[in-house]
Design goal:
By secondary structure, the protein is mainly beta. It has one domain. β3 and β4 form a beta hairpin. The termini are far apart.
Length: 81
Amino acid sequence: MEEPIHQFNKTLARLKCRGPDGDLVEVLACRYFATFKTPRGLRTYPGAKQWRLASTNALLTLIDEATFFNPETDEMLFLVD
């Protein structure tokens, strides 16, 4: 496959989470997209989903549907309803 002609991340959702100190933080659910030129025209394909802290853009690890891990600080973040 050829190299993409355009790559971007799109924010899919903004989630409120609580850290170990009780503070609320915002987590961004994002998805990577890449656009390719094909014989039938431009096509955009979705890629991997990722979660980032809104404040620092740190990449988070998804533990389960309500828990995230920040490897930069070794902290667990929990989704708030």
